[in-house]
Each structure stands twice: as C-alpha cells, then as structure tokens.
Amino acid sequence: MFVVPCAFAQDPYPALHRLESFDFKNRLLTKADLDRLNKEDNPMGDDEVASIVLLRGVVFGKHGRIFHEPKIQDFLKKRPWYRPDPKFSNAELNDTERKNIDLIREAESHNHWRIQPGDLRFWQTKRFDKKLSADQGYSIADLRIMQAEIEAIHGRTFPGEPLLQKYFDERYWYKPDPSYRASSLSKIERENLAALKTVEQKIRGTTFVPADVMTYADKPIPEKALHNLSLYELRVTRNAIYAMRGRRFKTPWLREYFANVEWYSPLPEGQNEKLTATDSENLKTIVKLEQRLHDDLTQKPIPHQRLTGLFVEDLRKLANEIPARHGKVFADRALRNYFSSLPWYKPNPRFTLKSLSKQEKENYEFLLLAAKNTTKQFAMEEG
C-alpha cells in the first residue's frame, strides 16, 4: 500500500513562487497577477506573511537588498537565487522595476487595515477615513514618518533631522527638491497632514503645536497649554512668535523649519519685526518653561512619563542638551547647528564626560538609551 508522506505540506505561496522567475526589469505586472496573489493571501493566518509583501521583497531581493523586516528577510534567505548585498542602492532599479514596486505597494496599501508608512502616495487625492485614529496602535515614529512622507512625496528635505532624511534617501521613489514649499500641497494633503498631527497630539497628551501661536496673536497663551512639549518644541514655538511677525531667520535650522510653514511670510531684507505687548508676554511664558526644563536636566532624575511620545530626533537633542551646557563640540552637523543657535552655548574643546555631575551623567545615559531604543524602532519602518 502506498502512503503519501505527511511531510509534503501544501505550498502556501504557489502564485508567488511562479512570479519569482518574472522579468521585473522588462515587464509590468498585470492586475491578474496581483489578483492571484490576493486570493492566495485571503485564507492566511495571522502568523503568515502576505504574498504581496513577499513579492516586494523578491523585486528588491533580485538586487541583494537586505531587509529590516525579519519575515521578508527570512523568506529571501531561503531563495536559492538570493545574494545579500550590503552595498545595495535604489539607483540599481530601472524605471520598469520601480513601476512594478509601485503596483505592489499600492496593492499592499489597499490591504492594510490602517494607514501605514509607505501608503501616503496612494492617499494624495483621498481624505483619510476610519483607517486613522488614536486607538490603532500607532507609534510616534509611525506618525512622524507619515507626516513627513506627505511632504517628502513632493521633495521636501530634512537637514535638521538626519535620521528622517536618511529614511527618505533610502526610499526608491524619493526625489529631493530644495525648492519645495508647503504651499505646493493640495487641500486634501493639508487635511490629511492635520489629521495625522491630531492623532499624534492625542497619543502624547498635548494640546498645542507651534502653529497655534497664530490663534494667540492677540491673547495670552495659557501655560498649561504648553505642558508636555519638549524643549525643542518650546524653542520652535518661541520662534514661531517671531515668524508670525515676519522675522527673517539667519539660523539654518530655524530658516529651514519656517520655510516649510505655509503661513510664514518673511519681511523684506533689512526690515525688523515688531512685537506686540501680548507677544512679549507669551515669549516670557515660553522662556520660563524652557528654563525650568533646561534646569531639571541637571538637577532632577528625568521621569519616564516625560519622554512619552518624544520622537527620536527630540530625544537626541534633549540628551545632548546636557553636555552642550558644558560646551561639548559636536561632530554631528545637525546638533552643531542646533546648539550653536542657542545664546547660552559656548563651545569648549576641552570638554569631557568627566565634567558632568552624577545627576547629569545619569540623565544623559538614560536619555541616550531612550534615543537608542527609539532609533531601533524607527529603523524597523520599511515604508
């Protein structure tokens, strides 16, 4: 009697495996190809990776790309044709391959139960619906990447946020455009951007963003409205008051930030902004909070809840605020530009970590660890 061995389990990816030999360089995938993959994905369990996701891995994998997503990388490692190449660059992809990846990514976006990084190109003409809410498990990294993605689609660069810039430099579709301005966004894109910011605020428990200074142009900003903002956000908010009155910024990171703010209209060269009495009072409120947070870094342990919702770039700035107070000279260009713009910063080439007090060192190490952990999460976002 002949018995069929149980070891020969049914192939869960027959349609995907047929496409492994597809000529992505010279042919475009058809709707029928993608429909077969979707049918293959329907009966899958929660632990299985969708065929459409793995197909994206196949297109890149033909060039040796190494994925951060473990399940895609594990799949590629088992392919006899896969040769990992740490030097892979998106420049290796030709136009047809890029179009195929676009088709795959669009199909992926349709299958997502919530909007994810990498999906925003397919929402340029559609308003967000119920696929976006604060109770869907978004991380701050997810939300910041998606906010930036809306503008990166149009070529915005992020010189003040090197990790974010690196993220988009690694996207096959990204084309930096130094002439980008926020005014180039459509009404729908601006609404979607605002929706993402609202979800971020709900998760972080904040009620204020720098652009809100426009609402307080003629009335005091309540101090409690500024609670939960980071030092960096307080500094942006303070300078937003000057920007509201047309100041022309000489500091690189401020100039770059406000160049991408839709309402910002700088005064003619040589003309100074005129602050109102209300502006001056609001500046005092912000400076008082800045000073309090600034001093707490050296005098008190940092409570964990203070870091809730901070983006990796905010954590990097906050951590380096401590050695910056002692004059550390920064090799990192973004950090050097940021701290050089602050009036209290005095570079000291002789600085060493031994200059820090016990409390400062503990806070510094705690913040560096938080930044490192957040960087790992950020790196896992494939987009």
Automatic annotation (TrEMBL):
<dbReference type="Pfam" id="PF13308">
    <property type="entry name" value="YARHG"/>
</dbReference>
<feature type="domain" description="YARHG">
    <location>
        <begin position="293"/>
        <end position="372"/>
    </location>
</feature>
<protein>
    <recommendedName>
        <fullName>YARHG domain-containing protein</fullName>
    </recommendedName>
</protein>
<feature type="domain" description="YARHG">
    <location>
        <begin position="210"/>
        <end position="291"/>
    </location>
</feature>
<dbReference type="InterPro" id="IPR038434">
    <property type="entry name" value="YARHG_sf"/>
</dbReference>
<feature type="domain" description="YARHG">
    <location>
        <begin position="118"/>
        <end position="201"/>
    </location>
</feature>
<dbReference type="InterPro" id="IPR025582">
    <property type="entry name" value="YARHG_dom"/>
</dbReference>
<feature type="domain" description="YARHG">
    <location>
        <begin position="30"/>
        <end position="109"/>
    </location>
</feature>
